[in-house]
Amino acid sequence: MRKPNFYSNQDYDRLDRFRDDPDWLAHVMRSDQTRLLPLWRGRHLVSEDHRPIAYPANKDRGLIDLASECVLLGRDNNQTVWLALDISAIDEAAASLIGDETDCFSDLRTVGPLIDRQSGAMLAHARAMLHWHRQHRFCGHCGSRTSSTRAGHLRLCSNPDCAQQHHPRTDPAVIMLVQDGDYCLLGRQPSWPSGMHSTLAGFVEPGESLEDAVAREVQEEAGVLITDIRYHSSQPWPFPSSIMLGFYATAVTTDISVDGIELESAGWYHRNQLLNSPENELFHLPRRDSISWQLIETWMKQGAS
């Protein structure tokens, strides 16, 4: 059985049934079984050894007072309820006073590969939800302000003549490893860290299936035609709000053509070449918390010699 991709947690109860229960919500807001996860301008509070910092709700009421948004995340297997707090309104000096002297607010892109799977899922959920709140403060239908309800899982337009409901959004993107025998197709975007090569990827467009999106993106980015498109797995990717849908595909053509804009280069790489990747600034594979790495690693192990 394939293990879940990083940032996902199948055992995590999101407690939808309690989101409209004001008495239950009031209870958990002051319970010693509730933990508060503060986020400041999209960053998580972590310790010097990259451990996420959370606070008991019954002892750190001041954090709740600082929060512009509070989102019920869910309950873990230890029966701990988790809330995400957006404290972005405070300035940098005030943010530096939260936590111990060695604690700091860090981007999940930086600490993600260094934390455990359960913490990663919790932080990813918190980051995605609070990003959604920041991006939907105004109604896309009439322009009026919106307000948060349902424990942070719905925003309502304040204009009674509109009253639109805005639900959390996630943007589907396909990500695929194209193979040709013992070779696979990897590309490189200009904005990536020096030497990084990865699978091709792109957003799903309106009116197309996931398989259509896979074929289109590979042809657009690399000029390669494919067949035998096969689903592998998915991964939440809160940078800022995507769901990555992973696929394998088989090449029909192997000539590569890149436009230098989406990709600056692409190439076919032998399985053994990747197994012996130098992992340096000249060439390295994607970060280990990404589905792109999972696609590559699974393929490398299938027929290594």
Automatic annotation (TrEMBL):
GO cellular component: cytosol
Keyword terms: Hydrolase, Magnesium, Metal-binding, NAD
Domain Nudix hydrolase: 168-296
GO terms under biological process: NAD+ catabolic process; NADP+ catabolic process
Catalyzed chemical reaction(s): a 5'-end NAD(+)-phospho-ribonucleoside in mRNA + H2O = a 5'-end phospho-adenosine-phospho-ribonucleoside in mRNA + beta-nicotinamide D-ribonucleotide + 2 H(+)
Domain of life, per lineage: Bacteria
Gene Ontology terms for molecular function: metal ion binding; NADH pyrophosphatase activity; RNA NAD-cap (NMN-forming) hydrolase activity
Gene3D superfamilies in the cross-refs: 3.90.79.20, Nucleoside Triphosphate Pyrophosphohydrolase
Cofactors, names only: Mg(2+); Zn(2+)
Sequence similarity: Belongs to the Nudix hydrolase family. NudC subfamily.
Protein's name according to its UniProt entry: NAD(+) diphosphatase
Protein encoded by which gene: nudC
